Amino acid sequence: MREFPLTLSQFIIQSQAAYPGATGEFSSLLTQIGLVGKLIAQDLRRAGLMNILGTTGGTNVQGETVKKLDAIANDDFVRVFQASGYVCALASEEMEKPVLLPGNWPHGKYMLLVDPLDGSSNTDNNMPLGAIFSVLKYDRTDRLPTEAELICRGTEQVAAGYLLYGSSTMLVYTVGQGVYGFTLEPGIGEYLLSHERIRIPEKGTVYAANEGNYCRWSEGTKKYLDSLKVNDKATGRPYSGRYSGCLVADVHRLLLGGGIYLYPGKVDKPEGKLRLLYEANPLAFIVEQAGGKASTGTSRILEVEAKKLHQRVPLFIGSRHDVEQAEMYIQGRA
Ligand code: AFP
Fold it and tell me: Could you report the per-residue pLDDT of 259-288, keeping only the tens digit for each?
């Protein structure tokens, strides 16, 4: 009989057996995430041939121009989870307020927070894109959740992951028992286990940052970046710069090969650009589960107190050694 990698569904069912607390609902929730990935991957493969590039002409709650594919990806998440039965509330970078899904309540006991399309500046030039998701548990049966109940510390997440639309489409996730990666086999429409128990190298030799912002960084951040360019073979320096414009693609590269991604605050915008609840927290969960670290530069991302749904946070994420080095410079200890 031919050897066949486990499909996402088979892997989840096997994992369920190992964790009696896991229910079929959560397994199916992940499968629904995979369905959104298939829908978007299909659109992206033909984007240049369909009228789905460019902008909608509108701006989102962040005041950013909305690309047509941002709106399509957001609609796909809402539509798939409206009919999924497992999610009773959905928050998104593209929507000012969360969408409550009363049709899935009270049995639907999860809340989902997503960046439905990460790397929107890449939509029209065939560069990588992604989606990021964070899953919270909701156990009340007397009422649907309020917006405030979606605004939690990263340590409250029960699952997190991302879809990566690159040379292949991947789904990478954790439920707190390690990080697993699945690659979409388009011929059969199945995600197959391709990366079992991903571990990030303790130290890397790659950094991902938009150095166009260098002049607006703190002195500590500048000193850290400068330190990566020193010629010192013993410490693997100078590092290589790799920046794709897509957080998911850059973090995925570091997850497999080591290094650091940084989107620091600026002197005029100390909170930075990236969103805490549906970008930094889920990726921090993933990277910590793989043995890495995620920091604001001064504190652990997963312990940042969340106050607003679209709260921004500075992000230093990747190999433990590299993030700790960045923290030392930023805190004036280097
Ligand atoms: P967009 O989705 O608005 O393109 O933002 C992408 C992102 O959140 C992250 O994916 C990138 O690493 C980062 O922003 C790129 O931001 P800059 O264009 O300011 O470098």
Answer: 999 999 999 999 999 999 999 999 999 999
Can you name the CATH fold of 206-330?
D-Maltodextrin-Binding Protein; domain 2 (3.40.190)
Is pTM beyond 0.90 here? yes
Give the mutation target among 59, 62, 69, 121 for probing the ligand 1 site: most ligand atoms within 8 A of CB: 121
CATH 3.90.550.10 fits 8-195, yes or no: no
Cα of 65 to ligand 1 centre, how many Å? 12
**Any idea where the domains of the chain sit in the sequence?**
8-195, 206-330
- Which atom of ligand 1 is closest in space to residue 243's alpha carbon? 12
92, 210, 275, 317, best to mutate for ligand 1 pocket (most atoms within 8 Å of CB): 210
Alpha helices in the chain (DSSP H): 8-18, 24-45, 68-82, 219-227, 247-257, 281-289, 320-330
Ligand 1 atom having least distance to the Cα of 212: 20
CA of 246 to the centre of ligand 1 (A): 6
Cis peptide preceding 201, ω within 30 of 0: no
- Residue recorded with tokens 């410490």: 235
